Amino acid sequence: MPAETLGTFTVTPDDIAATFKPGPRKNWARYNQMAENWYLREMTAGEAARNEGLSSSRRNPEGRKAYRRFCSSFRLWQPKKDGGKGRKPFPVHAVGALNHFGIFPGIDDYTYDEDGTLDVDALRDFDAHNPRFRAIAWLSTLQLMEGSMTQKANHGSSVGCYFASDQMHDSRMVKFLGAIMDEEVDPKKRQLPVDSYHARLLAVLGNHIGHSNHSLMALPRPIMAALETIQLGAQAESYEKTLAFQILEDFVYCLFGLDKASPRDESYRTIARAHVPSLQTEALAKERAELFIEILAQTEVTKRADYFGPYEDARSGLWSSTLNLEFAGKATQKIPTLNQEFFDRIAETVNDLQF
Q1: Taking CA 225 as the corner, what is the angle to CA 222 and CA 228, rounded to the nearest 5 degrees?
Q2: What is the reported pTM?
Q3: DSSP label at 58?
Q4: For residues 47 and 34, is the Cβ–Cβ distance under 8 A?
Q5: Cis amide prior to 310 (ω within 30 degrees)
Q6: First vs last C-alpha separation in the chain
Q7: CA 84 to chain centroid
Q8: How many CB atoms lie within 10 A of CB 352?
Q9: CB atoms within 10 A of CB 155
Q10: What is the domain partition of the chain in residue ranges?
Q11: Which pLDDT tens digits describe the chain residue by residue (355 residues)?
Q12: Are 19 and 204 in contact (CB under 8 A)?
């Protein structure tokens, strides 16, 4: 299978629904089918059930149970104007929220019909041409460097994302998170949360959840797709190649903006060291470190880069590496400049989100 590039990158509403447990996923499919075929025809619950081949006959107890379950769901999700309760399954709420945030924009600004039923067919997939793509790539990188992802075993296997570091409590970073979620973020909180809808999106992008690392990806999909796009060379579209360089540079600047890199000592003033975020296996940690080196080479922020490791942490059992970075000038002068550039790029992204 060809490697994913920015030209082929896509996230669909079905991908978000797939992050839920089997029950909610099944309800997602049933809701979409009902919305498409039955609500629009203004059928009753019984008519819709019979249209599905279900029967309320007492001679078929199992079929009767299926009939009742179907009718119960139909009335629960049916618009209030038609006599239903107007509720929506959890995946529908999540996709509807991501539509509000511009992740799944509606075709011709049409997403919901007049009774509030989500029209999934009227949604565009999330791809590299989405105006919010760079911001989401930023969020994915920030989570990799400084965030934590959790998944709770409740009705919908809720996914959470949190930032607790001092660097993320910087007013400029708080403003960035607020622009992503279209709401004010309280900087006084010990952990700055990302709403569960964007957290699910990050999970689809391959960001690490806890220590289980379900995706087993060295780096999130936007970063890998950007790297693959650069490697296409002249075959890549101009817009996609420009975006790829932006994303990879954003990724590198995170090392300096989040204080991951520091000058080694006075005798090696052109040298700095940076920590590569940990992973579950030695092989994956090695792959991640090599990808960091490859990205650094593409962006030319450093004069030279290599790494040592991976090495296992005795307490956590996770594997890490350390980057050796060499600059053309003194690291003690270069790193503060790169730190400021990081925040300038974050501010630029915030301005783009506010249009």
Answers
A1: 150
A2: 0.89
A3: T
A4: no
A5: yes
A6: 37
A7: 34
A8: 13
A9: 11
A10: 14-106+118-122, 133-353
A11: 689 999 999 999 999 999 998 888 889 988 888 876 666 567 788 888 888 888 988 889 899 999 999 899 888 888 777 777 878 889 998 999 999 899 999 875 545 555 566 778 789 999 999 999 999 999 999 999 988 888 776 555 678 888 988 888 899 999 999 999 988 888 888 889 899 999 999 999 998 776 444 445 689 999 999 999 998 887 888 999 999 999 999 999 999 998 888 887 655 567 888 988 888 889 989 999 999 999 999 998 999 999 999 999 888 888 889 999 998 888 888 899 999 999 999 999 999 887 5
A12: yes
Length of the chain: 355
Count of CB atoms within 10 A of residue 96's CB? 19
Report the alpha-carbon distance of residue 276 to residue 299 in Å, rounded. 17
**Side-chain-side CA neighbours of residue 252 (13 Å):** 24
Q: Give dist(CA 252, CA 256) in Å, integer.
A: 8
Whose structure tokens read 């809808």? 197
Exposed, middle or buried by CB within 10 Å (0-12, 13-18, 19+), for 234? exposed
Contact 104, 123 (CB under 8 A): yes
Q: How many whole angstroms separate alpha carbon 82 and alpha carbon 93?
A: 20
Cβ proximity of 245 and 230 under 8 Å: yes
- Cα 180 to Cα 169: distance, rounded to the nearest angstrom: 15
Q: Starting from the edge strand earliest in sequence, which strands make up the sheet with 159-163, in order?
A: 147-151, 159-163, 192-194
133-353 domain in CATH 3.10.28?
A: yes
The partner residues of 150 in beta bridges, in order of sequence, read 160
Residue 162 CA to residue 91 CA, distance in Å, equals 21
Contact status, residue 69 vs residue 48, Cβ threshold 8 Å: no
Q: How far apart are CA 293 and CA 227, in angstroms?
A: 12
What is the CB neighbour count within 10 angstroms for residue 212? 11
238 phi/psi in degrees, rounded to 5: -60, -45
Contact yes or no for 140/9 (Cβ under 8 A):
no
Q: How many CA atoms lie less than 13 Å away from 237 in the CB half-sphere?
A: 9
* Strand pairing category for 261-263 and 147-151: unpaired
